[in-house]
């Protein structure tokens, strides 16, 4: 990746994050966009696990299970030249999980 591409990707992420921080797009939309931008397609949990969850934010799935996916997600972000944090990993994964539950069926 060239320095220009890295710069452009960071500028795009910064602009999109500004939209989120200024309430022009929702938390969900921002993290779904970010997931797509880095190429993250799945949340890493099977449908049965997601559907067993009784919490709309999946807080009944141990945080360590989400955190454990950080290395993979961070590599995707790094390939785009983006700065990354563990909380971005978890927010992206949970947004994808909520999207998946909407696609496959009811959730508590």
Summing up helix and strand content along with how strands pair, one would put the structural category as mainly alpha
> For the residues shown, what is the average pLDDT?
95
Helical content stands at 55-70%
**DSSP E strands, number:** 0
| Rg, Å, rounded | 14 Å
Strand content: under 5%
Distance between the termini: 43 Å
Largest sheet: none
Order of helices and strands: HHHHHH
How many domains would you count in the coordinates? 1
The dominant shape is globular
Count up the helices. 6
Low-pLDDT regions: none
Task: Describe the protein in words.
- It is a single chain.
- This protein has 108 residues and is mainly α.
- It has one domain (3-102).
- The protein has 6 helices and no strands.
- It is globular, with a radius of gyration of 14 Å.
Can you summarize this structure?
This protein is an all-alpha fold and about 110 residues long. The chain contains 6 helices and no strands.
Could you list some keywords that capture this structure?
108 residues, mainly alpha
Task: Explain the layout of strands and helices.
Layout: H1 3-21, H2 27-38, H3 47-52, H4 63-67, H5 70-79, H6 86-104
Helix pairs in contact: 1-2, 2-6
């Amino acid at each position: 990746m060239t320095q220009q591409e890295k710069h452009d990707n960071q500028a795009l992420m910064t602009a999109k994050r500004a939209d989120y921080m200024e309430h022009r797009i929702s938390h969900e939309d921002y993290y779904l966009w970010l997931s797509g931008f880095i190429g993250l397609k799945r949340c890493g949990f099977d449908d049965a696990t997601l559907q067993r969850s009784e919490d709309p934010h999946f807080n009944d799935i141990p945080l360590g299970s989400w955190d454990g996916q950080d290395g993979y997600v961070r590599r995707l972000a790094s390939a785009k030249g983006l700065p990354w944090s563990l909380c971005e990993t978890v927010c992206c994964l949970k947004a994808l999980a909520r999207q998946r539950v909407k696609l496959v069926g009811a959730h508590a």
